[in-house]
Design a protein that fits this description.
1 helix, globular, mainly beta, 9-stranded parallel β-sheet
């Protein structure tokens, strides 16, 4: 039996309605919202999904679900303050970023700092460019005070 399909007007509404282990498919379009991923879920964007408001953190991963994974794929983020952030309070087996594009963020494209309770971070097939626009101590990808496994390909 296939899973139930539900339609939501925002990505955040879909996240709020999801439970750990569920998948969210995002149809192509521009979503003028920043999202907080507070559950161990998979978010997969169709080609042409643009996320963010142009300020703040476009994708903030805060999930506390030991042994589980947050997966984000197929999103385009352009012009946020920060593209993707893994909060220091997150607790997961894996944060998986695949086929994501983050450009023109004011401070950082991807950041994970002091994330002691995240076992592994994987960034694959993704594009980070022109982030850290003029700010010191910023960049495309920043991972600090972290002892887990990191894969970037």
């Amino acid at each position: 039996m296939a899973g139930t399909v539900r339609l939501y007007t925002t990505i955040q509404d879909a996240i709020n309605a999801a439970a750990d282990g569920q998948a969210i498919r995002v149809e192509a379009g521009t979503y003028a919202e920043n999202i907080t991923v507070d559950k161990a879920i998979a978010i997969a964007g169709d080609p042409g999904v643009q996320v963010g408001t142009g300020s703040g953190v476009a994708v903030n991963i805060t999930a506390v679900s030991a042994g589980n994974t947050v997966s984000v794929s197929g999103l385009e983020i352009d012009g946020a303050s920060s593209g993707i952030k893994v909060a220091s309070t997150a607790e997961l087996a894996l944060v998986e970023i695949d086929n994501v594009s983050v450009t023109n963020s004011a401070t950082v494209g991807f950041i994970a700092g002091d994330t002691e309770l995240v076992d592994a971070i994987s960034i694959t097939n993704s594009h980070f460019e022109n982030n850290a626009l003029g700010a010191a101590n910023t960049g495309d990808i920043i991972i600090f005070e972290y002892n887990g496994d990191v894969t970037i390909t």
